What does this fold into?
Amino acid sequence: MKKLIHQFIKAPLLITILALISMGAGCNSQRSKKSSQQQAASKPELQTPDFNADSAYHYIEKQVAFGPRVPNTPAHEACARWLEAKMDSLGADVIVQEGKVTAFDNSTLRIKNIIAQYQPEKNNRILLFVHWDTRPFADYDPDPAMRNKPIDGANDGGSGVGVLIEIARHLKDHPTYPGIDIIFFDAEDYGTPNHLDVPYKEDTWCLGSQYWGKNPHKKRYYARYGILLDMVGAEGARFYQEQASLSMAPDLVDHIWNTAASIGYGSFFVFQKGGYITDDHIYVNKHTGIPAANIIQYDPSTRTSFGSYWHTHDDTMENIDRQTLKAVGQTVLEVIYKNRY
It folds into this structure.
């Protein structure tokens, strides 16, 4: 009978009814949004833990001590085991995603993406990620005879991992309101080398994040946003606003940079555009839709824009600075602990 009744409703009356329904739906939506904001506001503000730069420095030293963490090498395997055990000891629910990817030279790389979940039962999530592998070449080393040898990667690889392990140290006993996922992506730095006479191939960088993006550790995985750390430990490093991040997550970039300024690290986080960097955040966003911001060193005064030691054998512990680690680590902690939604 209801279907028949609808046939006899006159048009003006029908329009009025639909308008009332629409108004009611709009009011309900506004009430729901307001209720969500009120609930978030009613939650007490969490105390942000103190980021220990000495601890982060130690975690970088530990990685470098294994040697270059290049896929298919014993040092890579040993470091993977350490990372898994370390995150487990820090209270994370750890998943090691193993896979095979094809490098620029068609060789097969055995990779391990190490995923550490905090409060995995929560749907509201934040993703923090880095790459943990190191470059198998020293493309820009001043000594041509050294360019085919792998680098230590203290800053490029090690620094971001060290910062995230130190952040993880607080998450078990001092949980955030959102659930946190920390992912150490593999094979980010195995892209086509610049010093060899080989054709450039697209998508040969960030192989681990590409693999994970197509095969996430949870079906239809999603986080509200992601923060990528890359080369975040060098003395004198400055972090400009990376342009791909500005394109996909402008509000997040502003929030991170404003947070840094508000807690005294504005000299590290520069309110100017940096480069457009092909990095793990590109593929995370491409395959999952998660908006992400890349905190990455940028130096417009050098020919590579990444520091004179980038992709050379000078990327060692001598370049790692505790003040830089502190600035980045404390900023990221402040962002995730002050998030009450």
In short: The longest strand covers residues 108-118. Residues 1-22 have pLDDT under 50 and may be disordered. The CA atoms of residues 299 and 305 lie 4 Å apart.
